[in-house]
Amino acid sequence: MNQAEVTKLMSQLRFALRPAKRHLKNPDGPEGRLLKLRKTVTALVKHERIELYYNRADEARGYAELLISDAIRYGDRHKATMELADFWLLEKQLVHKLFKVIVPRFENSNVSYTRMYKAPRDYPGMYYDKAVLELRGHPYPSLQQDFSQNRNFIHNILLDEARKEYRREKLAEMANKLAAESSDASKVAEGTGNSVKAETKSEQQDKM
User: Fold this and answer.
1) Taking CA 103 as the corner, what is the angle to CA 102 and CA 105, rounded to the nearest 5 degrees?
2) Percent of the chain clearing pLDDT 90 (strictly above)
3) Which residues pair with residue 118 across a beta bridge?
4) Which CATH number fits domain 6-135: 3.90.79.10, 3.40.50.150, 3.90.1030.10, 3.60.9.10?
């Protein structure tokens, strides 16, 4: 399919396709914005987990993925890849880490090299979307909670016992309520029977 046919096909879509808008303004212009992204990629390679604003993390993630992908594909003997690493990594000792630590970690990986999570907002204060951007295989504790083996945690045991005790109390309340209602019904039935017997007896005495 040539370029003209692709353009014709795109014009037939029901919804207009627009590029994603990123609000990454910088007082120093495009150069300052690019420098901030370079600092973000450098910090990610250095610390392997960083917290920052969501928009900047989302864009810097793509550049970090591209950098690691090219480093794995071409190695440290490829001139263009070394120039790319030299551009994005402001601290030049991190170039050695990229090829000697990160590349061996991900050379057999079939998933993304990074993960990104939404971070909780600061309260009180203005609302800004924040994110945590990290490299897979980092040495830090995981941000994802493991729900597979937590039944024997002390707080879960206490919560289970409290839940059972609450159910027992509710069942006892229901049993007492049903017993009280049944006793009231039997008393009403007994009173009705006594009144019927009294009326029958009085009728018999009148006839005599």
Assistant:
1) 65
2) 52
3) 131
4) 3.90.1030.10
pLDDT in tens, 24-44: 667 778 888 899 999 999 999
CA dihedral over 123, 124, 125, 126, signed as positive or negative: positive
Average pLDDT of the chain to the nearest whole number: 83
- Look up tokens 């420098």; give the residue: 35
**Beta carbons of 45 and 94 less than 8 angstroms apart:** yes
Contacts 24+ apart (CB under 8 A), 109-113: 109/136, 111/136, 112/65, 112/136, 113/64, 113/65, 113/68, 113/69
Average pLDDT rounded to a whole number, residues 8-29: 59
Cβ-contact 47, 138 below 8 angstroms: no
Backbone φ and ψ for 92, nearest 5 degrees, come out as -70, -20
The residues, any chain, with a CB within 8 Å of residue 130's CB and separated by 6 or more, are 51, 52, 53, 54, 118, 119, 120, 121, 122
Cβ neighbour number for residue 106 with a 10 Å cutoff: 19
